[in-house]
Design goal:
It is an enzyme of class 3 (hydrolase). It holds the Pfam family Ras. Its cofactor is Mg(2+). InterPro entries: P-loop_NTPase (IPR027417), Small_GTP-bd (IPR005225), Small_GTPase (IPR001806). This protein is an alpha/beta fold. The protein has a single domain, classed as Rossmann fold (3-Layer(aba) Sandwich). Helices cover 38% and strands 20% of the residues. It has 8 helices and 6 strands. The protein has helices at residues 3-15, 43-52, 94-101, 116-120, 122-132, 156-166, 181-196, 207-217; strands spanning 31-37, 66-75, 78-87, 106-112, 138-144, 170-172. The protein has a 6-stranded mixed sheet with strand order 2-3-1-4-5-6, with helices on both faces. The longest helix is centred in the C-terminal third of the chain and has 16 residues, at 181-196. The protein is globular, with a radius of gyration of 20 Å. Bound molecules: guanosine-5'-triphosphate. Guanosine-5'-triphosphate binds at residues 39-45, 56-57, 60, 62-63, 88-90, 144-145, 147-148, 174-176.
């Protein structure tokens, strides 16, 4: 089309009614992602690894109440703004955590593969999530600290079995080495983006399948 033709086309296009199906939906607003799990499982370290690409080595300082960080991810060419809430795992802060569940769009529930009690407590966390979080909240189970192979007491298969029982996607992570950290947040961001701005004719995004495929592709920790 010549230049004149093109401007005529633009003029004509300007008169077309702007029906919703002809317009790209706006990008999703900021989504809240909450990290939950027992004290010491590595929630803060996972967030710092994701946000700053670093590992917090040294003495363990428990989170008091709640903390948050923002990060923008580009998913399929769309910017997804995540506000990530790092909750305190200690029992005495539980009422603070309860107050935040309702506004969370996604939850990353962590246990520590070197700490059996943190794994056994997952069922109690799921009961709490069921009670306080939104029914359609995006949920993923993470078995953290897989770099500590010599101290591992929870087998990957046990994590997989539990996740399957509750119908949630699962992967093992390491805030220390960075294994699957980016993937966990990207998977959540993809799901949230697809939920908020599904385009006509776009196939449904399947979080479970995506996680399975990507974890297998990383050559580690099948889900
Ligand atoms: N080896 C190893 N250690 C980790 C990993 N993630 C966290 N840690 C260590 O585990 C301890 C607890 O980590 P945090 O991130 O503070 O734990 P948390 O879940 O935020 O704890 P609370 O704030 O009390 O709820 C720290 O000493 C970390 O260095 C990991 O992936 N691998």
């Amino acid at each position: 089309m010549g230049l004149l033709g093109w401007s005529r086309y633009q003029l004509w296009w300007g008169f077309l009614p702007k029906t919703p199906c002809l317009m790209t939906p706006p990008p999703p607003p900021r989504s809240q992602v909450m990290l939950v799990g027992d004290s010491g499982v590595g929630k803060t370290c996972l967030l710092v690894r994701f946000k700053d690409g670093a590992f917090l080595a040294g003495s363990f300082i428990s989170t008091v109440g709640i903390d948050f960080r923002n990060k923008v991810l580009t998913v399929d060419g769309v910017k997804v703004k995540l506000q990530i809430w790092d909750t305190a795992g200690q029992e005495r802060f539980r009422s603070v955590t309860h107050a935040y569940y309702r506004d969370a769009h996604a939850l990353l529930l962590l246990y520590d593969v070197t700490n059996k009690a943190s794994f056994d407590n997952i069922q109690a966390w799921l009961t709490e999530i069921h009670e306080y979080a939104q029914q359609d909240v995006v949920l993923m189970l993470l078995g953290n600290k897989v770099d500590s192979a010599q101290d591992r007491v929870v087998k990957r298969e046990d994590g997989e079995k539990l996740a399957k029982e509750y119908g949630v996607p699962f992967m093992e992570t390491s805030a220390k080495s960075g294994l699957n950290v980016e993937l966990a947040f990207t998977a959540i961001a993809k799901e949230l983006k697809h939920r908020s701005m599904k385009l006509p004719n776009e196939p449904k995004f399947k979080l479970h399948d995506y996680v399975k495929k990507e974890v297998r592709g990383s050559g580690c920790c099948r889900s």
